[in-house]
Inverse folding.
């Protein structure tokens, strides 16, 4: 899980899907709930704080399906996945928050 995910302004596809890993190994999130967070890198405002879909719990694959309002603003955003395990304990991916961005590029029309 790393790098920049790029999407056009006002688009809702493709969804963002990633595998959550810890120390390079897939993280089992069976029984957990997941939220997707997106924060504006310029003014540090929260753009998205929403429930995400767990695609494959045993291998930590998660997905967020964009709403039109999520991609309305052009810019660079930091992303993270907040996992609440069945025990109630919370772990956030990535832990280092380096290089995990979403870039929303200007729509021509």
């Amino acid at each position: 899980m790393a790098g920049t995910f790029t999407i056009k302004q006002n688009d809702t596809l493709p969804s963002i899907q990633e595998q959550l890993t810890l120390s390079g190994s897939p993280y089992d999130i069976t029984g957990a709930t997941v939220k997707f967070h997106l924060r504006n890198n310029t003014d540090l405002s929260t753009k998205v704080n929403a429930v995400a879909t767990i695609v494959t719990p045993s291998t930590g694959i998660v997905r967020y399906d964009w709403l039109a309002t999520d991609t309305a603003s052009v810019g660079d955003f930091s992303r993270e996945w907040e996992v609440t395990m069945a025990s109630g304990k919370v772990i956030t991916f990535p832990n280092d928050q380096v290089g995990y961005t979403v870039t929303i590029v200007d729509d021509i029309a």
Notes: The chain has one domain: 3-105.
